[in-house]
Protein 1
Amino acid sequence: MEINATLLGQMIAFGIFVWFTMKFVWPNVSKAMQARQDNISDGLAAAERGRKELDTANEKADEILQEARKKAGEIIDKANKRSNEVIEEAKSTARAEGERQLAAAQAQIEQELNQAKSELREQVVTLAITGATRVLEREVDAKAHNDLLSDLAKQL
Amino acid sequence: MSENSGGVTYYINHHLTHWSIGEGFWTLHADSLIVSVLLGSLFCWIFWMASRKATEGVPGGLQNFVEMMIDGMNKITKDTFHGHNPLAAPLALTLFCWIFLMNLMDLVPIDLAPETMHAMGWDYFKILPTVNMNVTFGLSLSVLALIIIYSIHYKGVKGYLHELFFHPFNHWSLAPFNFALNFVELFAKPVSLSLRLFGNLYAAELIFILIATLTLSYGIFEVFTSIGGIALLIGQIILATIWAIFHILVIPLQAFIFMMLSLVYLSMAAESH
């Protein structure tokens, strides 16, 4: 096995192949791989971000829900209180109205009673006059004794 | 019998002879050169095709393979070679793929290339380039040149010379001894690299040839008609199969060892002691 110029040819070929690989193969593939790696890490970061945002949104939703629940409770309390108030008010109004009506009825009764009394009195006067007239058998001058009669009626 | 052994000797010699062009040192082993350049071009073409269409999206089959190779080489280089070097990883990839493809020619049936080329008018054609010491030395001397270039690049001419003369024993009186030591160390690297590859593949090829000579004394009809011929044929097929399967392991292994050691040598050259 002799050493000859094949060796030089081989060295030259080797150099060319290495140069070719370094110049034309390596950069493109490396670039593509790097770009993909960046894409993937970006995607992962975005996913992470999304997860965090979801967490905050959930927290916020919880907060809002709690607040809403609290508000609803307050509103119900208020409504209960208001209804109690309304009931109390209605009760007192009804009571006052009842008392008022009772007073009115009593007043009317009183008035009617008075009226009946005065009517009765007048009738008694008339009856008395008629009686007196029949007793005296003569006409009493109504006009002359009017004052006396009305005085008498008042005393009844 | 003597005629038979003469036939075997001729057969082996024929299979181990290169197709040579020219005289003396300027002889070219055309078969080794053509096959190795074709295989190297094939490697470059495949990788170039993949790199031209390289997308950052979902890679196809070829791109996937190429990316796997490149990523692997990047990792190996990063592990071995401290500090950034744009040449180291492509160099390792080229070394591995090229040597792998050249070794792969070992699995081409040994009679195929010589007989085909003989039929076309060539006397000798050896398809396996890595059994040619010129080829393996061509690779390893290139690595040696890179070792020296790296040493000078990373340490400067002065630093490198200082290391050559004063490295193991830092005393001026021992400078010649140091230099002899370093010289041997430096040149042992390419010699061991190339002889390892050459020796493995040469032995493998020789054993393939020897297995092939089992049935050489029989004619094409006698092999199938005589009991001895059939027995030898079966033995030959079994042996050749086992040896070929074993070589599926050896082929990438030798390519990997060559690449790995070259990287180690280069990283040693780049580091200061």
Protein 2
Amino acid sequence: MSCQTVIGVRNLVKTYPGRDGPVHAVRGLDLEVQAGECFGLLGPNGAGKTTTVEILEGLNEPTSGEVEVLGHRWSLDAAYIRQRIGVTLQETRFPEKATVAEMVRLFRSFYDHGLDGAEVLRRVALEAKANAFVETLSGGQQRRLAVALALVGDPELLFLDEPTTGLDPQSRLQLQDVIRELQGRGRTTVLTTHYMDEAERLCDRVAIVDHGQVIALGTPAELIARLGGEHVIEFAIENHGTEVQASEFAGLEGVLKAVERGNGFELTVSEPHRVLPRLISHLEATGRQLGRLTTRHVSLEDVFVALTGRHLRDNQEPASEAQPRTRRPRRVRA
Amino acid sequence: MIPSIRPSLRELYCARLREFYRQPARVFWVYGFPMIMALVLGLAFQNRPPESAAVVVAEGPGSESIVAALSVPEAREGRAGRPGLRVTTRPFAEADRRLRTGREILVIEPRTDGGVVYHYDPTRAEANLARAAVDDVLQRAQGRVDVFEPKDALVQEPGSRYIDFLIPGLIGLNTMGGGLWGIGFFLVNMRIGKLLKRFAATPMPRQDFLLALLGSRLTFLLPDVTVLLLLGRLVFGMPIRGSLLTLAVVVVVGALAFAGIGLLVASRAETTETVSGLMNAVMIPMWLLSGVFFSSERYPAAMQPLIQALPLTQLTSGLRAVILEGVGLESLVPHLLILSAWAIGTFWVALRIFRWS
């Protein structure tokens, strides 16, 4: 199974008819996913991730383009593919008055081969809830049930759509273990997310999707390396007006890139311990007061910003620019 | 369970049954509500002997003799075709006021020439009845003799009462509600919860999903119908003249017609508002037109072809024919044909336009 192409997508296009002309959800997307990897599709809401994944899951039909899943085409071998994939949707409301074990048994009955119900519940750590009604489960437990139902057919390929949105830390760790365990057995996972840190932690490779196309592809480390430096210095100057320009800091020795962001500046650097003293002495020399200073590792989010000029979770970018800026809670999930 | 059934079909079917009986509120609306409705309407329209009629004699010259004439035992007790009478006296002005405010049905005003004036509202049936009874008693007291002695042959057979008409109607209504709520509303809720989409992403055989839905619907039909039949039989003494097998055939074909309509209503709707609107658009006309609570023959002849084409009309009239008249299957062919046409037509369309997501 190793180094075998599990998903092959060439020039995928999906266009929906819309009130104000056609909506181009996916416009010429190419993708290859190898067996045994955890592949992440990253992008902001509306980038075309979910449409792409639904086409891969056989829930949506492409307008044009070629799609192969596990070496088969949906139009010819839908039954073959369905037996071998597991799916979680963004939000599924399971019947309130069914127990966890009953739901697992129901989904198990759809597959020719699969896992024992108790085994599936053990993997997502829901054994203790086997006889509980779905309505009594917490949000995190319901998401784990959704994963259990995706695993019950012992899939070769698992799709997870925004798997950790709204999950408690314990459930997120649980999910990481599930994905690692699958990888250990040569199984493949495709997950979509708009959480960069999640993709960094879980994925072997990520494709960054924007406006229905892949704009960057590689391992998280490769993508981050493209920015040149691995660290970011964020700082602000008290009471500064337009007289301070980002270009002023780009000239400092060791600064690879300097941008103005929000009410402060971001410097991309390789060696923060060398750049910081220079920055501080430069500010002292020009008589400016430091308002705030932090350093952090470069993240996929920075990659995304560098590629698109937008933040991942900014849904109405122009509108928020016009608002008086408060610091965006960007790193809350780190 | 039967071992030869595919596991997916068995599990889907059992899941649907469990989902129903674990919801006490739904159980009440399906079984409790129609029973209460039958009990309330049955008691309200129970056939009773006519009550004695309370009449008022206006005080004045001659009123004593009228009161005396109306108070003889024969007048107080009533007889065939005539209610008993209870007489009071009041000043005319007060009696007239009470009549105009609906608290009296008949005021008898003595006239100086020995006759009387009857004051009453001719649109009230009990007022006409009281007037006829009082007039009969007074005329006889004055010496009128009947020309001949009539004989009364009384019919009090079960089957001709309102409750006997109502119970088959309620069975039809319950069958319609079961199809539309149990299939239509249920499916749309599954679509909203993305559960239909989730099922579509599995190798679940799609015909099993439909078969399980129909199987559970027909299973629920058994208690649905039995409860109302037993209520009619045991509490109200309704006759069941036809064979139970014939009855089952009519109910099953009717249920399939409404299952098809439920499926059609649910095939595209994506919100509860849409499906509720569609369901009301289907159900309310049939509640009114299809002869559940009163005979659909009361509507003008021009509307009859439309009314007869409605599935609920055919189901309730078919049920009445089996239960009350005891007809066999051969007389029910038109009913069964119309219901089958509904079932086949709606399934045909619904399966073509049905959306899983």
Protein 3
Amino acid sequence: MINLNFILELFKNNFGALILLIALSIIISFEVMVYVESIRYILVGVLLSGLVFLGLGILFYGYTSSYLYAILALFVAVIFLFLGTYVIFLIIFLLYLFDILIIEIVYFSASIYSIWTWVIAIAVAIVMYFIIKQLNKILNKKLFLLDSEIKKNEKRDSHVRNRNKSEN
Amino acid sequence: MSTSWLGSHLPSIITYLINFLLEKSTFYGIVIIIIGILMIMFSKYFKPLFFLFYILFMMAILGYYFSLVSKLLIAIFISLLVFMPFLYLAFKNGYSMTVINLFMLGYFLLIFPAIKYYLNSYLLISTFIVVIFISSIITFYMFLLIKRKLFLPEGERI
């Protein structure tokens, strides 16, 4: 039977399992944060292109009340999925909270009924969440900032080369 | 109880794919790592490549619908035009992570046959995963630095 005591005993006896849980939760959250952000862009695109599509339908075939239903359904579906992405972020946060609570209880002998255990766990989970989020942003920007730097440099170089040519 | 085609075949498809990758894992690992390196080195061509694939995709759709309904054709064309920038942003957002994932998969395939018999405890598995993850991030940064050295002259570096 899996209950809280079973989980705590498992992690008490097996340090590797805890490390595995933390490593997996950090790596998975690292990936999920990026791809969920991408899903958001796609959802906005779906909403706008769907509205354009319906608008064209109205333009070509004339307005009927069924279009209103379609627009409403599109909005509801996209907003529902968009909120779903925030639920995923909440799940990531809860995963961190679970990790930190287990560390506190197993290795620092903290009581789960103490308010301070929860306060510290929530604070550390929030800090961890924002650190991972910032790392994600930095990671993606690095590559494309370097590209834009290289492009700027190439443009300047070609400008200088053209000027030298015209002077010669 | 009847199950769907995917439900009954998915486990065997996944097993087949994993076996396929592990059969010549060293070779596929090297190929995947090289693809990752190329993705870093030629990332400035991301936009034109995206546009090329997008144009090919639209041409395929337009070719399919052209003889059927011209109004539908225009609607899809314009909708796709609206959708395109968002798809571009979505792909660009996940670009670096995809490269890191490729490195992770590549390292996994490279190292796995050599050490699969030693992964017999949680601690070793977690160490393996953490080492692969950190080394793939380090590889990503290393190739960014190499790219900077290759494409930017000495005075321009920050």
